[in-house]
User: What shape does this take?
Amino acid sequence: MCVDSAMPHLDRPFDYGIPSTLAPVVAVGSRVRVRFAGRLINGVVTGLSDTTDFDGALTPIHSASAVPSFTAEAISFAEQVSRRYGGSLWDVLRLMAPPRVASVEKRDWSQVDHDEQSYREAHQTLVAGAEAVSLPADAVARGARIVWEAVPDPSRRHGLPIEALLAPAAAVAARGQAAIVILPDARALAAAVEALQRSGLSRWTARTGGHFSVLHADDGPSVRFGSYLAAMHGQTRIVLGTRPVALQPVPALGLVVMWDEASGVYDEPHAPYPHARTIAAMRADDAGAGVLFASYAPSVEAMALVAHGWAERAGVPRGAVRDGTPLVTVVDDERRRAEGASGWHWMPGEVWRRARAALESGPVGIVVPRAGYVRATACARCGTWAECPACGGPLRKDAATAPLQCNECGAVHPDWHCGECSSAATKQLRQGVERIAEQVRAMAGEAPVTLSSGASGTVADGELTAGIVVATPSALPAVDGGYSCIVIVGADVPAGGALGAELQAVRWWLGIAALARPRGDGGEVIAVGELPPVVRTAMVGWSAAEAAWDAYGERADLALPPMRRSIRLWGEVPVITLALSETVEGERLERHGEVGVVEAKGGVTLLVTRRAAQGVVDALRHRQIALSRSGEGELRMRVDAPLDPVS
Assistant: This one.
């Protein structure tokens, strides 16, 4: 029995008795309620036995689920994940299964009736999409492990090559195996559902059954738990979902597909913080399944899998890349300076003229990286930044007539005056999408202007056919056929200078560029901003994989992740000292030849060779358990933690 406890020393099996009334339903994987330390808590049955090493009378299980929520194989895999990340088994099981709904468990889950012909017909429909973008779908379906640098879907229906991603999944399902498709968000999920339904497959429901399951939190607890059980029992062979679906138990796993694997949404925010890409790779190893990591901008971690020989790199022929992607132009400071005063407007004059001309042939998108109205202001007379008198934070405006308000503490300052010259007049420094939309409406004349953002509401894909769309990056809707022109206002890299910031910028802007038409159809993307050479080259040449490959080589030379694995430790100084005194292969961690110790805020970061990493994690977990048992301190650990920029 695995019980729900945050204490590391309680991360071990406990024996309980099975009352005769529960004997027919208790099985490996059952979720139960048990009495532990005088109170009822949750647990999961991890094994059954006729004997016990416990000398006294076993406490009986209080109640049990009608059907198991986990298979024995799923529990075994959860144990592998918990060991790799130095966490508890309960935490992994909690991430694996959605909350149970008793009424859903009453369904008969033993009946499995598959329609192989429908899967075969769906594959024949979808494979054309794979051929159109040069994806080796047949090799993936046969078990190849591919890191694929994608180009947009020629139809530009959703802005991503969804039919290509689903083609190998349908092929795997047609031969009796399961395929898991991991997607970053609800929009990608909706695109996948639509593509499968167009190919003749139906979504599973409790009433009708179906060919594929969808797991998404927005569907509600009953639908989500029912879809989880349907996939676990093999009633569907294709499973779609966001980050948690990477852990979905399925019988006979044959393929894992992951789109946009460099996205930050795949980094689990809850202990033990597993990354969906790593989970997918572990599952492929465990089941001998194929893997497709696909994106416009592959991550350095994906390139590491190629460099280590675990996966193969695949792309699209350069001629096809040029034919399938828009013309990308970067308007940097030099070009703005050459234009004169109008070049320094947030929308340089020449860029606006090109965007207006593009309106004649189709929709135009204007992408603004900042949400809100005005994110920062300054004194209109002397140029000093407007700061909060209370905390020193920058002052923003939420509307044209709204008072200045602090970004940090939220204090309102209707009577603000400049501390340098006493002027009350302000100018706008960092305009958000709402302020830009106001100005575009004034500039656009009779052309319709639509705002799409999280605060104002996101426009659905395919809803617009003409006019100008002003949007934040994640809210720019796809349009059928693609945008004739997209302007990125204030193109930049993520603030903070963290490791990988430039590659993250490449991913952002290529994801936007994918929504534009091919250059042969007049499609153009104009990025206004001063971009680093790496970002500029990758955008203009649509060569993000090369940038990631070069970045991996640089990190390998510097012994940085993913060449090495990072382990972040937090705790009081005596606790950190004890942790570093642990021995691996006869050497203390602080002196180990394959462990680098870097000072970090609140603790240290260990940079460990991949060969020694598991031994180091095991030793640190042993120390965690000992400290938890003795109560002498707390050691917190995160494996594969992002590097602190100040480290």
About this structure: Residues 610-630 form the longest helix (21 residues). The mean pLDDT is 94. DSSP finds 19 helices and 28 strands in the chain. The two ends are 41 Å apart (CA to CA).
